[in-house]
Design a protein that fits this description.
Elements lengths: L1 H7 L15 E6 L6 H12 L3 E7 L5 H7 L6 E4 L5 H13 L1
Parallel strand pairs: 1-2, 2-3
């Protein structure tokens, strides 16, 4: 999970000034990282330049971990099954449009 977050971190260092702009990253996961500490660090670094939204996929998701690395508690969403992913994305789209 940490490697994924590191890959979406902007390479443009001008974006790391704390001005998040409109950039958003959405992470789909079971919330069970191989290395929680590295994942927390990568998420923190990413959140300096963009909003991080997490979507827990499945019935045995570590919701607490995904909520903790999201930009805010309301930036965590859950989908028990693939059929619920579209609903989560629609909810995210509505919140971003506000």
């Amino acid at each position: 999970m940490a490697r994924c977050l590191d890959r979406i971190s902007p390479q443009d260092k001008s974006k790391t000034s704390g001005n998040k702009g409109n950039d958003v990253a959405i992470l789909f996961s079971d919330g069970d990282p191989d290395n929680p500490s590295n994942t927390e660090t990568a998420a923190t670094n990413l959140k300096h330049s963009m909003k991080l939204i997490t979507i827990g996929c499945g019935s045995s998701v570590n919701q607490n971990f995904l909520r903790s690395i999201a930009s805010s508690g309301s930036d965590y969403h859950h989908a028990d099954n693939p059929g619920q992913i579209l609903g989560a994305l629609q909810q995210i789209a509505r919140s971003l449009a506000q």
